[in-house]
Automatic annotation (TrEMBL):
Its main location: membrane. The chain crosses the membrane at residues 26-49, 61-81, 117-139. CDD domains: FHA. Residues 254-313 form the FHA domain. Coiled coil: none annotated. It is found in: Cell membrane. It holds the Pfam family RDD. Residues 188-234 are annotated as: Disordered. It is a multi-pass membrane protein. Keywords: Cell membrane, Membrane, Phosphoprotein, Transmembrane, Transmembrane helix. This is RDD family membrane protein YckC.
Length: 348
């Protein structure tokens, strides 16, 4: 194994990817192969008709043409699924995904084409060649990489027991956590609860702030819909459209978290408490606000980071304690919750 592949496999393990077991891999191969054999069934029927009648006719030719068309369509679908999603019917059934080594994304067309071409060439040695390709994953006891994987520089992982590398948000969060080995994971633990008498004096001294559950401002009670065309006498305002259907006009400043707390030095922030069943959201996760016509967010050094997805782009991690201005349509993920930034022109 070359140094680059070894480093990529070591990083994949650190990120939380788990190699697909040999049994699951063989089953996925058999499912894919069985579908291709099913596409040849009409041609087999045509051959039987030819053998029984002993003469050429239109029916066997038509059935053979149908098989050729079905096989071509299946090969195109298989190539597309492998290149764009790292998947196939067999991999989907076994919950497996293939990823390219290095950048941990879908293999792409060149790699998928290389693996397909190698597998087709293996049929020059009938039965033995394809069987060796299918069973070669048994030779790699640690990562279960087959000869096809090594030719295409890919790696098949089990997404049931580990990270799905084709999920950009999950991958971005894992890379963020990897970049912070000294992170505090105590925020994932349930609070034991503290009475008022036993509370920390410094914490008790913090004045209360107005709160929002980001669910009480419903779309039916809000004027925040599709942005209108700007006109004279209007001002550009921003709102957050949350994944539960609620809308929140962006104030001058605010905090988002499981139970956000303002500091004594802070101003009159709007405190937005979000429910997060997966408990990936920090207590005070994110600061946000408006400066003029622009909306901004700032990750407050949260445990699981903040991911921002721009239109038609991969998610990127927001740098901690740095203001990041948002564009219309950007999607922000905090923990397991998401919201989209929208802008609207309203009357002054």
């Amino acid at each position: 194994m070359d140094v680059v592949a070894a480093a990529a496999l070591a990083k994949s393990s650190t990120l939380g990817m788990r190699p697909a077991g040999a049994r699951l891999r063989i089953w996925s191969y058999l499912i894919d192969y069985a579908i291709s054999l099913a596409a040849l069934l009409p041609a087999g029927i045509g051959y039987v008709i030819f053998r029984v009648t002993g003469q050429y006719s239109t029916v066997p030719l038509v059935l053979s043409a149908v098989s050729a068309l079905l096989l071509l369509v299946y090969l195109i679908v298989l190539l597309t699924m492998n290149s764009r999603k790292g998947s196939s019917p067999g991999k989907s059934a076994m919950r497996l995904r293939a990823t390219g080594l290095g950048r941990f994304a879908a293999p792409g067309f060149p790699r998928a084409m290389a693996a397909s071409f190698a597998f087709l060439l293996s049929h020059l040695l009938p039965f033995i060649g394809p069987a060796l390709m299918l069973l070669s994953c048994l030779f790699d006891r640690e990562h279960h990489r087959s000869w096809l994987d090594k030719i295409a520089q890919t790696y098949v992982v089990d997404v049931r027991n580990g990270l799905d590398p084709t999920n950009p948000r999950a991958l971005a969060r894992a890379e963020y956590l990897l970049s912070r080995p000294d992170r505090d994971i105590s925020e994932h633990l349930p609070s034991l609860g503290t009475s008022v008498e036993d509370a920390d004096p410094d914490e008790a001294a913090v004045p209360s702030r107005r709160r929002s559950t980001a669910g009480i401002i419903g779309a039916q009670n809000s004027d925040w819909h599709s942005p209108a065309e700007p006109g004279p006498g209007t001002v550009r305002r921003a709102a957050f459209a949350f994944d539960d259907g609620s809308y929140l006009p962006v104030p001058e400043s605010g905090l988002i978290g499981r139970a956000p707390q303002a500091t004594e030095e802070s101003g009159n922030e709007l405190l937005v408490a979000l429910k997060d069943p997966e408990r990936l959201l920090s207590k005070t996760h994110l600061a946000f606000g408006c400066d003029g016509a622009n909306a901004w967010i700032m990750d407050l050094g949260s445990s699981n980071g903040t991911q921002v997805t721009a239109s038609s782009r991969a998610p990127r991690n927001a740098p901690p304690n740095v203001r990041l201005h948002l564009n219309d349509g950007d999607v922000v993920q905090v923990g397991s919750r998401t919201f989209r930034i929208t802008f609207q022109e309203t009357a002054k």
